[in-house]
Amino acid sequence: ILMVDEKGKNMKCLTFFLMLPETVKNRSKKNSKKGNSSTSSSSKLPPVCYEIITLKTKKKKKMAADIFPRKKPANTNTTAVQQYHQQNLNNNNTIPAPNWQGLYPTIRERNAVMFNNDLMADVHFVVGPPGGTQRLPGHKYVLAVGSSVFHAMFYGELAEDKDEIRIPDVEPAAFLAMLKYIYCDEIDLAADTVLATLYAAKKYIVPHLARACVNFLETSLSAKNACVLLSQSCLFEEPDLTQRCWEVIDAQAELALKSEGFCDIDFQTLESILRRETLNAKEIVVFEAALNWAEVECQRQELTATIENKRKVLGKALYLIRIPTMALDDFANGAAQSGILTLNETNDIFLWYTAAKKPELQFVSKPRKGLVPQRCHRFQSCAYRSNQWRYRGRCDSIQFAVDKRVFIAGFGLYGSSCGSAEYSAKIELKRQGVILGQNLSKYFSDGSSNTFPVWFEYPVQIEPDTFYTASVILDGNELSYFGQEGMTEVQCGKVTVQFQCSSDSTNGTGVQGGQIPELIFYA
């Protein structure tokens, strides 16, 4: 008997001589006639029969997910599956077809059918504020498995047996996003509902969903929404998100203060921003932003936006604005004529600017420290030759990438190698062909090999692990210094910068040599 496994692989070979009764009798007679014949003669007799038996070996048990990998259902069931998914989204409460369980190979998919489905629902939620409510079905067991709050609500010592639960402080879309995570193990976030979803995840203690919301907010963080997110991150006690918001607000302070979102922050957040020592903005911009916030706050409090009411809603926060540190022109043409200051305050501040003996002020008179820019220098040396470096409206360009989020404030550029000269520089920063920042300005070089800063109007946010293109078109003295012995990677503080050549460069600048010797940034 040859025993093999299902794949035909030899497992064990056993040889048996299966003698039929007639055969045994005949052979016994032959052996008796021959007497004691050698055993070898009998061993040569062929077996009467043999058989191959297939053995089924034991296999490791597999779960449904192993047997049926995650993929789209077969074409025959696609329509039904899509109908149930759409039913869940729209809450049509359609009774599933018989044996609907057969459409889904895994327990996860079958459980997901219950999402927003009245089938077997044993509780309902009326979600949203009055006038904007939505009635959503739920299943206590599934909810209790996904949230300790729901577990206490349905199975705890103080559990109440209610068929309907009202939740006026959560938006229906956010509650549905949380239910979708609990039922389907899927995270579906949108920019307009992520904050409300974070609130729901925090309220019902669904930590993984809350973490996903915070990650979503961090990746979408910009100067336009940084102030609002700062207010929310403090409310939700998310220190990492708070720190990221401060990084954006500090570096892009003027953009953040001029954003619409700044007027939506609460008074406590307003005070924290006005106190900020590292705010990288002109004080006149801070002053104007505070007045804009006061006007919107009057509307929220249903007050007429008069000068008196604006000052009333600002309260003591007005004195956090460092008016005495403004440029005299900014104060004379802006703050002094705004009407928000009293006559005595205006006179005292003018004396502060001009008098030797300065009066005491309620306003903070010490300038903000702001941020200290860092410089990433990519060349190890520089040189000049009689026939280089020439500019005739051609573009010098280089690509770079960083490993941490930074804010590019400008470039350091070389100047004339033939004595002092003035240059006109058009600087530009792009990502995949999209212009993120540009500026046209002039700078004066003194004939040395030093670099001279040229700034963007506002710092540009740079995300990690993505290549950006830095470009400059210079117009001025054709002969200038140029860099050489360029490095492909430079460590600047805690930031690593990588460089590579750009196809936009038409004037000879590359990794090994050329212009744009420095990136100036905040980190």
TrEMBL record:
Subcellular location: Cytoplasm
Matches recorded under CDD domains: BACK_BTBD3 (cd18524), BTB_POZ_BTBD3 (cd18348)
Recorded GO CC terms: cytosol
SUPFAM superfamilies assigned: POZ domain
Residue stretches making up the BTB domain: 121-191
Cytoplasm in keyword set: yes
Keywords annotated in UniProt: Cytoplasm
One GO term (biological process): dendrite morphogenesis
Protein name: BTBD3 protein
Source organism of the structure: Serilophus lunatus (silver-breasted broadbill)
